[in-house]
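@channel sequence for tomorrow's demo:
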Amino acid sequence: MSLGFSDLPVVNKEDDIFEVSNYVNALSAFIKECTTPMTIAIQGTWGAGKTSLMNLIREELGNSVDSIWFNTWQYSQFNMEDELTLTLLSSLSEALEPEQSQRANIGKSILSLASRTALKIGVSTASHFLGEEVGEALQDAGSEAKSIITKNKEQDLSPVQAVKVLKKQFQEAVLNKIGKSSKDRLVFFIDDLDRLNPGKAVEVLEILKLFLDCDKCVFVLAIDYSVVSQGVRVKYGDSIDDSKGRSFFDKIIQVPFKMPTAQYNLKNYVGKFLESIDIKNPSEQMLSNYSQLIEYSIGSNPRAMKRIFNAYLLLSKVTKIKGEQSDWDKEMLFAVLCLQLSFEELYLYLAKNLDECNSQEFMERLYNIDSYRDAEDGDEDNESSILTDDNLKLIGKKYDDQKLHNLLKFMKVFVEVIDQNGDGDLSEEELNAFYSVINISSITAAVDNVEVSAKATYTEEEHVQRALPQIQQIYQDLKQKVMTLGNISFDPKKEYMVMNNKGNRFASVVFRKKKVALFLIMPFGALNDPKDLFSKIGTVQDKVGWNYLLEMRDESDLDYVFEMLKQSYNLANKDNRN
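structure tokens (generated this afternoon):
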């Protein structure tokens, strides 16, 4: 069985895995019935499926029309881009299968136009239309070439007249071709315009408008509007604003059609992928998770999806060496790859700071907008900033509002995937499995020197030294009381310390210069706090988490605080929380 997803476009409707047949049928019907001349733009980013859609349209049209396909990108390679416009003219003209006399006349007109303008013509084009003598002379690029072109060109024609003559000849060739086949129109498919240098793409569009705006012709162009807008500025100067770029586009394109990527049947595509990795009969929840991970990260761009599927297949081979994968392992690996491909800054941060990831609290912060919001003056006294991380804020600054919105939605699904049993509480086993997947995924990272960090070691002293002496004393006095509860350990993380009793977490502390923040790890709604000293920062009833916060600046009510802390301790031992 072949492994992997190739980047070849779809060529027939049997392979229409995204189910775009409605759009194909509508566009095909329009092409067959529209007035001519007509120009249709199939718009979309690289990899959105423009070529595939045009292939399906061409198949649907079948023999009802004559059609010609031209790929511009292949002519932009090997220094051929300078002569692309005339190569396009000559290639399209030749595809019309003109009579010998028509071919010669069209060739002479192309050469005549080239001699009067800045357009360049290649050896192969000249040789094809006027024979090897002209081609060899052009290759020498000397005076002999100039004399031959002068001898062959239409005498006393201005560039404008030369364009008119060429357009008339092209029109005659079109009518001759459809007359032979008894068709009423000719459809030109021009692919990969947006892979050209933007300025050259605009030049090709101008050529299409000037020379090929002929009756009985429909042009279907694959193009990204942003390339056109950029090309207009390149060709005519930065003073051209977006509105003028749009006007240029609208003047050439009569029918803009945007690739319907948002309407792609992602679940169908995901289902085919899951079959390839031996996941049979996936649940609706699993299909939904995969689809949402794609939607909120790489989006519905087919090329991006193929890339991530192939990266997964490679990594799955690596992980199989270490043992069989469960469906959960596969889902988590896929989630990490989506993170790596679309939110690289956050992926790299997690890969290099895995010690922080081994906690429920940190993972929940990854889908909280406050974690990425810029700090403001007086931030130290802002309750929502107690557990913020400057690195996450720096990452947030790199993303616009839409990308940050997608990141938050993605991370919510991401954490739900890690939570294998769906109980809302990430166990040590689940977090360690995530840690292992991050380690494996580094081999497909796009940047060099991605080294997954070992778990860093932090000390209690490092945390305590962040605070002023009087704040340190508050902590020491509270710690002395806590130690009376039994065999209590204080587990230092990068930003906080966790209080444990035989692995059962019940509280955490965060040090700031002028205060120490105490979080009680217990179900929301479970704390009996008659003095109402603790702020309720949880939102989900009965969910275990960092639901209660008290910021301590002095030792008032220290005994009362200890009694509140004991409630969390007792619940943790009862639940056997880890």
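heads up for whoever presents: The longest strand covers residues 504-512.
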